[in-house]
Structure formats: structure tokens, C-alpha cells
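dumping this here before i forget
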Amino acid sequence: MTGIGYTLPAVVSVVVVVAAELAWLRTGLFRRRAYWITMAIVLAFQVPVDGWLTKLSAPVVVYDPTHFLGLRFPFDIPMEDFLFGFSLITATLLAWTAPERREHAS
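structure:
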């Protein structure tokens, strides 16, 4: 089954992180300019590094084609890498900002 092994968990991770913010944590992270600047900085480093690691001409990291969709952009980067990257960075920032929100609420 194409895409199940890596794609499904990548998509689920995004849904879980976004749902946690919108339904439970409510830190307002997605409304902060600093968050989107952070994501742009992450992408500025992720694209060249991940592009080099996953380039089809000489990959350092090889994905089993039966475990991801095969959508690659830019520089042969699997779409799933961006989804997991979004989830990991956002979850980390939520973990840092959630206690701050609770302190202000008290």
C-alpha cells in the first residue's frame, strides 16, 4: 500500500498538533508573527539540507517507495518531510508556550 508507512503518520501528526492547539492548548501560536518567522527560518535550513540528503541523483537517505506518496518538491524532498517538520517544530513551540499561557491565566 503506497503511502501508508510514512505518509499516513505524517498527515496524522499535522492533524494532531493543529487540533491540540485549536481545541485544547489555545496558546494563539498560529496568530503570532514570530511563529511564522520561525517556520520560514526552519524552511530556509530544511530545504537545502533535506534537498541534499534526499536528492535522487545521489541520495544519502533512501525512502522505500511503497511507504510514501512519491511527491517531491523542491530538490527531490519528499512532501512527508515537510509535514513531519511542521509537526515537530510546532509541537515543540506549543510545549514552550502552553505553560506561559497558563501562568498568564492564573
